[in-house]
Design brief:
alpha/beta, Purple Acid Phosphatase, chain A, domain 2, six-stranded mixed sheet, 6 helices, 12 strands, about 25% helix, globular
Length: about 260
Amino acid sequence: MKILFVGDVFGSAGRRIVREHIGHLQAAHAVELTVINAENAAGGFGVTPQIAEDLFDLGADVLTTGNHVWDKRELIDYLSSVPAESRERPRRVLRPANYQPGVPGYGVYEGTTASGTAYAVVELQGCVFMNTNNDPFQGINGLLARIAAKVIVVDFHAEATSEKMAMGWHLDGRVTAVLGTHTHVPTADERILPGGTAYQTDVGMSGPYDSVIGVEKELVLHRFLTGMPGKFEAARGNPKMCATLITCDPATGRASAIERLMLGE
C-alpha cells in the first residue's frame, strides 16, 4: 500500500504547485491514501473551508493542520458542522488531537481506502516552544487504544527536532508513520525504525522557497535588522512541493519503504 503525505501547503504558490504535481504522483505510484497538511494554505495563515474543499477535489483523503488552525474563523463553523452522509469532508479536516477537550473538530479520522483497507490519521501538536496544549505522548497512548486500523499515519506538528524524534521512538512498531510538520524545512533523516514505523523529522513545505519559510524574505529581514514589527505576506517565488511517499503492508501496518520528494515547477 502506498501513502502520500504532502508537507505544509503555504499560500497560493503552495496550492499551485500541489495542483501541478499531485495527480501524476498519485497515478505513477498507485497511491491509496493521500494526506495533506493545509494549515498555511490560505495566504500562509490558516485554511478556509473553500480551500479545504479544493484540496479534497485534488485528491486529498484527509487534511491535517496545526497551530494556525484557528486563524480563519470561518473554519470553526466548518469543523463544527454536523457531517451528513453526502458531506463528510469537514470531519476529514483535523486539528491536533491533544487540544483541550470541547474545542471544535476532531484530531483523528478513521476511514477505508477504495481497496477496502482500514486506516487512521492522527494529528498531534508538540509542547516544546509551542502553544500550551495537552501532553501528546500520553494523549497518543489513549488514542491508539481505541483505533482498530493497522495502518496509522501520525502528523506530529512540532517545533523541536528532539520532541519529534522522541515521538518517533515512542510510537515505533505501534503506527505506520510518524511524519513531522511545522518548521517548513525538509529534513534528510527519513528512515524505517526497527519496529517498522516510517519516520521523518519534517516533511517540509509545499510552497515558495525563495522566501523565509514561506514569507516574503524582505519583510522578515526588515524585522531581524530593525526589530520593528510588520505585516508578513506569503511569498510566491520558486514554489516546490515537498512530500513523503510511504510503502506499507496493509495487513500489519508495518512500513517497508519511505521516500522523500521535492518537485519544482
